[in-house]
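Before a colleague's protein record goes any further, I have to sign it off. My question to you is simply how this chain folds and whether the tokens agree. I do not need a full report, just your reasoning and any doubts. This is what I was given:
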Amino acid sequence: MKTFIKLLLLVAGFSVNAQNSISGKITDIDNNPISEVQINTPEIHKGTTSKEDGTYVLKNIPKGKIKITFSYLGYKTVSKVIEVDADTLLNIQLKESSFEMDEIIVSAPFNKLQSENVMKVERLSAKSIRKLGATTLSEGITSIAGVSQISTGSSIGKPVIRGLSGNRVLVYTQGIRLENQQFGGEHGLGINDAGISSIEVIKGPASLLYGSDALGGVLYINPEKFALENSNNINFNQRFYSNTLGTNSSLGYKTSSDNWKFLARGTFATHSDYKIPTEERVTNTRFNERDFKTGIGYSKDNFSSEIRYNYNKSKLGLPEEGITEQSKSKSLLEPYQEIDNHVLSSHNHIFFGDSKLDIDLGYTFNDRQEFEEHHEDEDHDEDEHEDEHEEGEEAALRMKLKTYTYNVKYHFPKVGGFEILSGVQGLYQTNTNFGEEILIPDATINDFGVFTTANYTWNKNTLQAGIRFDNRSIVTERHEISHEGDVHVFEALDKSYNSFTTSLGLKTSITDNFTSRINLSSGFRAPNFAELASNGVHHGTNRFEKGNSDLVNEKNTQIDLSLEYKTDHFEFFANGFYNYLNDYIYINPTGEVEDGEDVYSYIQEDAKLYGSEFGFHLHPHPLDWLHLESSFETVIGKQDNGNYLPLIPANTWKNTFRSEFNINKWLQKGYSSVTLESTFAQNNVGVYETDSPAYNLVNLSFGGDIIVNDITFSTSLSVNNLFDKEYINHLSRLKADGILNQGRNIVLGINFNI
């Protein structure tokens, strides 16, 4: 660990000397200056805003080609790649736009604007998530068409992309892959939504860029941006939740000079058991969370670096007995999990004129403890339980996962319309058990991948292609565990998995307003050690899981077609996909019982998923305050034997009527919206699932920036499930017990900068 941290600091300490700058003036089409325009160079994490006269300046810019973006609400985003040599002058003219700002996509290989990418990538800002009133980050991203979540109460959510979830969806945070034992369904992402700027979602195989586990897609979480050059900022955010009697408090500070940047943010969240429309609370769905994020950045001339650290401590109740005792307490009952997650990353760019080297290094440490219920203590009250835990009660289950990751990419000099990127990527991971129970054995994993991808642009067309090779080795230790008179044996394993993946995509502008994208890509996922070697009770899923050491790679091929039509006041999109999976791994009941739980084992079968998302956004002229948005999503998953795949989300149709307004000078950027979310019946169910009926939910939101004595307060009020509708989402893990989802939830938020 110490050696790895030294390596992070060594990379961060590299710098060279020269003085280059970019300056200019930003105007509209009538040559009027525009102030407060956001100017960013995403490759070196530098940014500033234009002054009242429209002028701006960025200092300490590397010599050679650099990408710079200009964005301002109500105007089309401009992205330029310019040649920097000493002091460079760049004047920009912005054109008005009725739709949201175009953004640079970080998760795609060449960091282009959303509108320029060959791959269709969905992006959701942190501000949009707060407006939704979501309790967790995983819940917030379900507003994206084609994205849903498998939930256990209000605290635990696992993202689902077009019907694929678990280890098939790879999560990136701070530029590195997140490894927090995501094979388990009993805990969530382990990332608080405070201290992030946006989330990008790649829907479909992304193994070419990210290797194993990106078979179903990627959830790429962008951290909070540093302060603009030569500025300081203190930010406070507070949210209140009526349903769970919960609060989420966050305080952040950031400062920036010409070269150095620093930020830090602390967050505390606490919630009691969630309430269902019958006015009952679901016992032990309460949870508490502490989160701390910090970062330091340095940029000078031909070098840019940032080091970030995130510590998240979550205590999550596990609802095993449904609805029993009624309480508003936030002290956890047994069983519950206590999860410590540490993420340390170093993100670096070294510029060589027209080429660039990216070096990303990461270390994650996940400590997962599970405390079981002791029936002899049933007469104790909740406070006594909590005191016992604090006095050092040993966890029945404890696993520590340590992961070292590296990702090195070289961007070759651009020649004409050609851009080429090559890289190596991998990880070294260890899992170690410390509790009296073992679900999965001690294990060591090594990943190594090498890849090349190229991008060619001509006229209004862009072609992108790539190839990659990966190897994953898994070595586990032998264990014999005695539990309640039974002996569970974990046999030692030594497995190696190889795979080639490819990708080919074309984006073309059929007309000035009509764009099409077609992508053909393959992906793979090596079996994880839970699927290979599990042999114990998973309390969060209430089943005894047995691994299968004979599992082979999952492989898939997906074709994805995207069509977009966009004018100044109307936007339409249609996405269709067909995804064929060889050797799909799934868990199936065996009919046996061990340790009082039904036994499930992992098996494989070829399968396919297909579906679509389509919708429109209407912004009629001259009603500039009005927006009507509608989207529909559907996915069907079937095995080749004719059975439907489990945990496939139901078809959903969302319609939102939204208005934007300003009231004098005291309320700016005001908004209000009403959303009707119609979820259709899910009758295409797996062999151990039951049908789920249809339901409709109505959600409201209202907010804006309130200005008092030159201090701006961003406020938000959302009401989810306005009519307290009784319903059960098909992807709720509490569905088997007939437990309803959350009833009406009023969320009040306030955010302000000092």
